[in-house]
Amino acid sequence: MSKLAILGGEKSVKKSLNELSVKVVPGKAYDTIRGMLDRNEISMSPVVNSFEKRYAEYIGVPYSLCVCNGTTAIQAGLFAVGVGDGDEVIVPSYTFWATVGPVVANGAIPVFADVDENTYNLSAKTIKQCITKKTKAIVLVHVWGNPCNMDEIMALAKEYKLKVIEDCSHAHGAMYKGKKVGSIGDVGCFSLQGSKVLPAGEGGILVTSNKEYYDRAVSLGHYERCIKLSEDSLYRRYMLTGYGYKHRINPLAAAIADANLDRLDELNKIRNDNARYFEELVKDIEFIKFQKEESGADKVYAYHYAEYTPEKFGNLKLATLLLALAKEGVVCGSCGYGRLHLSPLYTKDGPFANDYPFNTEAYNKRFKLNELPVTVKLADRTFMAAPRFETANKEDIEQYAKAYHKIKDNLEELINYEKQQKIEDHIVNDGRSINYVKG
Ligand SMILES: Cc1ncc(COP(=O)(O)O)c(C=O)c1O
């Protein structure tokens, strides 16, 4: 039995995160940006429209609109479908904060629903429990790149006349039953932030098949584009003012996203094949259960998450497991999701406590705030199990699997280590999606 790196043995994994990842800015972007700089296209550029057109085609919808980030895409998406003052919007708590913040920014009330324990996503069942007469929309997330069960959710939305905003910020290129995510709900919103699988640096893009939603999104934050809306558009008249926001993307960022679109499918395939190979190699490890896909879903391994079951591994703490993995050279981290419904913005100490229905007794009772058992369990037990394997060869992935097997074979040593080091059952949480553990 080989000795754990945490106890002075040799590391299993040789390559760093950088060595397993492609460079975020492809060569083509340098050329495009050089040309843009030469032409002084640093605020507006045809590159933006050309990227929008390509992305709309890629997703399979007629309309798309670049914005300055993914948060703004969601804000514009909510506005587009008519969410406003006092409307209730059903959201997950197992997500990045920006899925929910824009609901409040639009004057609406977020209602937190639980998620499915296998997919980590909202489901028709969890959404249905939260529907009231005031519910106007759902913001769902294809979390970690894993598509929701869109058939069931769209059927429920139709029955209750709810609008569906897909937050696809993890899921560029993911499919559900042959359709790209983002094209199934009323509006699809994508972050293009630097850590996403389609990075621009800072940027976002909204897609839709509904012309009015597109026009509304334009009018909210792009006064300079209102004049270009069709002659019969109600929103053309806002050509001087828009609705008061400015959501324009930096065109240099759009050029980076455009260059990344060239290789998105190819990289998604590499990431997926490698991730599946890794899962296959560790499938006999009982205490780790990977995020599961819905039938008909084609996820993208933008992030590689799994659930840890300490009861199946001598009650070793997740903190100890992650530390041991990190010492083996595994890029891993604890999960920052699933505590959003408990954060100050949405609870009694928050800014809305008096004049907004958050955390009033009635609100708590009705929406079972603080009672999202699956979400809370996943918040404590899910972790980032591996990075994106973009340039990895088989041997690199086998090293990752070796690290996991080494840990599995050394439970007793780990339990002793945990006791000696007095490791707290406390997961590092820096307020990020992924809280990397240092090796
Ligand atoms: C699920 C999800 N939604 C929304 C966003 C917000 O995107 P941005 O950071 O581009 O505003 C992110 C970004 O991390 C995200 O992960």
Task: Provide an overview of this structure.
With 439 residues, the chain is of the alpha/beta class. The chain has two domains: 5-22 and 264-338 and 377-436, Aspartate Aminotransferase, domain 1, CATH 3.90.1150; 27-261, Aspartate Aminotransferase, domain 2. Helices cover 36% and strands 14% of the residues. The protein has 15 helices and 15 strands. It has helices at residues 17-20, 27-38, 46-59, 70-80, 101-105, 124-128, 150-160, 211-221, 223-226, 251-281, 318-327, 361-367, 373-381, 394-408, 411-421; strands at 63-67, 88-92, 109-113, 135-141, 163-167, 175-176, 179-180, 187-191, 204-208, 288-290, 297-298, 304-308, 333-335, 382-386, 434-436. The strands form three sheets. The protein has a seven-stranded mixed β-sheet with strand order 1-9-8-5-4-2-3, with helices on both faces. Strand 2, helix 5 (101-105) and strand 3 (109-113) form a beta-alpha-beta unit. Helix 2 (27-38) packs antiparallel against helix 10 (251-281), helix 4 crosses helix 8 and helix 10 (251-281) packs across helix 14. The longest helix has 31 residues, at 251-281. It is globular, with a radius of gyration of 23 Å.
Topology:
Blueprint (H helix, E strand, L loop, with lengths): L16 H4 L6 H12 L7 H14 L3 E5 L2 H11 L7 E5 L8 H5 L3 E5 L10 H5 L6 E7 L8 H11 L2 E5 L7 E2 L2 E2 L6 E5 L12 E5 L2 H11 L1 H4 L24 H31 L6 E3 L6 E2 L5 E5 L9 H10 L5 E3 L25 H7 L5 H9 E5 L7 H15 L2 H11 L12 E3 L3
Parallel strand pairs: 2-3, 2-4, 4-5, 5-8
Antiparallel strand pairs: 1-9, 6-7, 6-11, 8-9, 10-12, 12-14, 13-14, 13-15
Helix pairs in contact: 2-10, 3-10, 4-8, 10-14
Bound molecules: pyridoxal-5'-phosphate (PLP).
The site of pyridoxal-5'-phosphate has 14 residues, from helix 4.
